[in-house]
Amino acid sequence: MSIIINNKKDILNDGVNNSLYELVLLFRSNIISNDVHNDLSSLVSFISMRLSGSVISHEYWGLRPLSYEISGNKKAHFYFFSLSLKPSSVTSIKQFLANNANIIRSLILKSTFSESELLQPTQMMKNLASDIDKEMGEIHVSEDFNKFKI
Q1: Dihedral angle of Cα 12, 15, 21, 26, to the nearest 10 degrees
Q2: Is 103 contained in some domain?
Q3: What keywords are annotated for this sequence in UniProt (predicted)?
Q4: Confidence band for 24, pLDDT divided at 50, 70 and 90
Q5: Residues 79-90, buried b or exposed e (16+ Cβ, 10 A)?
Q6: What is the pLDDT averaged over residues 127-149?
Q7: Which conformational region is residue 118 in: left (phi greater than 0), alpha (psi within -120 to 50 degrees), or beta?
């Protein structure tokens, strides 16, 4: 799946009133990849077109087990986003996500990281890359592997 992100300079300088946020989405385990792509594309369009925000980075953390069953799911597909938004847009995103039956849980938090830190891979991606290296030997995950454009 690839979605396009604007030039990094454009993202980071897109508005003086914007704040940085981190968004984690959990998609149901039996979802079809086309549905995920469509849902993520609509989310990115909603953020950029309707809310005048930007997606700074995106990562897929994989199909992971849940600590407890959520809406009949024991596993979920985890997605992470770094966003630049106006604080007043957070409620709109929460409502948008609540209307999507494929998303079983979401969390949006104001980020304490700097813009440049949000462009770096998260600790989760570093751990996943390390696990892959241990299991497969010579495989290395590129830092740009999970970046996409709007």
Answers
A1: -90
A2: yes
A3: Ribonucleoprotein, Ribosomal protein, RNA-binding, rRNA-binding
A4: very high
A5: bbbbbbbeeebb
A6: 56
A7: alpha
Question: 131 lies in a domain?
Answer: yes
Of all residues in the chain, what percent carry a pLDDT higher than 70? 73
3 lies in some domain: no
- Sort 146 into a burial class: Cβ within 10 Å, 0-12 / 13-18 / 19+: buried
Tell me which amino acid residue 148 is: F
Residue type, position 19, single letter? S
Number of domains composing the chain: 1
For residue 68, the domain's CATH number is: 3.30.70.60
**7: DSSP letter:** P
pLDDT, tens digit, for every residue of 34-89? 999 999 999 999 999 999 999 999 999 999 999 999 999 999 999 999 999 999 99
The torsion angle over the Cα atoms of residues 113, 118, 123 and 128, rounded to 10 degrees, is 170
| Residue 101 lies inside a defined structural domain of this protein | yes
